[in-house]
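Input.
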Amino acid sequence: MSKALWKINEVGRPSFVNYVSDDYQLQENEFYGTFPKDKWKNVNNPGDEPDYLKFKYKNYLCEIKRPSLSLLHLCGYITLERDNKLYGKEWFEKEIQNLEVHGGITFAEPTKEGKWQIGFDCAHYDDVVPGSDVALFGSSDYSTCKDITYKDMWFVKSELMQLVDQIDCLNTKKDRYSNDSNN
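Output.
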């Protein structure tokens, strides 16, 4: 079994080092797993935010997680069943891109269980990315950028719920071309 090894670099930011064995002895400024939130730079009071959250909303499975041990940003995912109109649609297809969510849909893939998952990430030009030494827009000084914010767990949850509302609306709306007069 291996663990993700991190080190606090010379500017006080986390840097992924490598994967190490369980018997590795930690050195000064090293730690395992995700970056301790009390040490994040440029993130206002992240508190005890979890790294993973799973919940159901309107019978849709929603997940929030940090897929990257280097950037530490959050991503939101919704699992779609086979009977969903968006099942199997790629992230770049029009039906998916018409959905409104932070940064747009950036992920669409099958699950191991034969379902379909779509998602979005919070590592865009207007996002504070806790594990990045340099902001994605090219400056290392977040304080000069008033519109740059950290998208926390509760922001991602709200975005997922709004996304589910849109998907649910698409799936409950009758096809405008169907002919109900044949009944």
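The helical segments are 94-97, 153-172.
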